[in-house]
Amino acid sequence: MTKRVVLAMSGGVDSSASAYLLQEQGYEVIGLFMRSGATEETACAIKPGELPIISSASHKQGCCSASDAADARRVADALDIPFHALNFENGFGRIKDYFADEYLAGRTPNPCVMCNNWLKFGKLWDFAEQVGADHIATGHYAQLADVGEDQPALVRGIDQGKDQSYVLFGIRRDLLDKILFPVGEFEKPHLRELARRVGIRTADKKDSQEICFIPDQDYVGFIERYRGPQDTTGEMVDTNGEFIAHHDGFENFTIGQRKGLGVAFGSPRYVVAIEAETKRVVIGEKEDLARHTLEADRLNWLIPDVPSKIRCRAKIRYRHDLADAVATVTDEDRLHVEFDESQYGVAPGQAVVLYDGNRVLGGGWIR
User: Fold this and answer.
1) Long-range contacts: 270-277, Cβ < 8 Å, 24+?
2) Are 102 and 133 in a shared domain?
3) pTM for the full model?
4) Residue 249: which domain range?
5) In-domain check, residue 215
6) Is 228 helix (H, G, I), strand (E, B) or coil?
7) Which of 49, 51, 306, 314 is deepest in the core (most CB within 10 A)?
8) pLDDT tens readout for residues 62-98
9) Which whole number is the average pLDDT over 328-345?
10) Is it the case that residue 168 has pLDDT exceeding 70?
């Protein structure tokens, strides 16, 4: 029997090409666009055997994803696959809450990881079960490998420059055998060429760089609009606690930041700490950023048996090189990571993800 798969379609080339590749592999594909804002909803045509689903792809929603929804629908129409655009405003509201709360606590959030955990591999599977699908799929650059265990292993994508396994570490392990990553075995230029060859309209569409609910990249403006005015002004100090200047709000800063400090120095300076309690932003030299260890909690494992001590490679940000380390699971179910060489820019609120070769072992959130 033909297996049915629900594909998250974002309107970009990766998910569009995924739709074509899945069809070529013999799957019955259903496209799903996840809307982040309130929309005017209207019933859509449902193919026989499917549950009634609300769609609104033909209506503008007044946010950055309206044109993406239109692109996704056009690709689905061209490939003759059913397409639904569902309103996930409540789910995205949870992500917006998390984003604002983390910044106001002096941490650096990662909404893409949370979106994957809560929506793309949570709500997406819920929808797939409703329509009797066997699998869910996304356009992430990652792969799944059969390693002889009860679940496949999550491994890095072939295109190391585009690999997205870091942002997938929080997936529930029991879902791994339900997931497909069609583009993980391709490099991006090859994928774009494939999309052009088969006539996919998004073949040359630029990759999205912004957070979907902050298309203008004005994080501070978003927080003020979303949470209301906040008194986060305070002092900028050096690592000895000596006053440098006043700042307009600590949410303007993140660990490792060099540009936009608002003060001229004779040599490069970096944000090395953000103290939400005192509203102080600590500035130092590059060496002041060096960290030999970190602690993380809220752990998620993608291996069946977790040893108490793991020799591994660790990644502390999406755009960060893998670093040799030893990770120890503590009695408090926390992760203590000790690096062979000091790392720069370890930021509370970001994820630390552990690898064995190209395999994702698991990870947690940096404390």
Assistant:
1) 272/239, 274/106, 274/107, 274/250, 275/106, 275/250, 276/104, 276/105, 276/106, 276/250
2) yes
3) 0.89
4) 232-284
5) no
6) coil
7) 314
8) 334 678 899 999 999 999 999 999 888 888 889 999 9
9) 95
10) yes
Which residues, 6 or more positions from 52, have their beta carbon under 8 angstroms from its beta carbon? 43, 46
Task: Give the integer Cα–Cα distance in Å for 296 and 338.
Answer: 12
Number of domains in the chain: 3
Beta-carbon contacts of 69 under 8 Å, excluding residues fewer than 6 positions away, are 11, 33, 35, 57, 61, 85
User: Which of the 8 DSSP states describes residue 304?
Assistant: S
Looking at the structure, do residues 103 and 188 belong to the same domain, yes or no?
A: yes
Q: Is the pLDDT of residue 61 over 60?
A: no
**Would 354 be classed as within a structural domain?**
yes
Q: Which of 285, 289, 223 is nearest to 255 (CA)?
A: 289
Residues identified as active-site: 115, 212
Hey, what are 316's tokens?
A: 């502390």
End-to-end CA distance of the chain: 48
Q: Name every residue whose Cβ is closer than 8 Å to that of residue 101 and which is 6 or more positions away in sequence.
A: none
Place of tokens 């030999």: 292
Helix or strand run (H / E) with residue 55: strand 54-55
pLDDT at 47: 36
- Give 103-162 pLDDT, tens digit per residue: 999 999 999 999 998 888 988 999 999 999 999 999 999 999 999 999 999 999 999 999
Residue 109 burial class via C-beta count within 10 angstroms: exposed 0-12, middle 13-18, buried 19 and up = buried
| DSSP β-ladder status, 4-8 and 28-35 | parallel
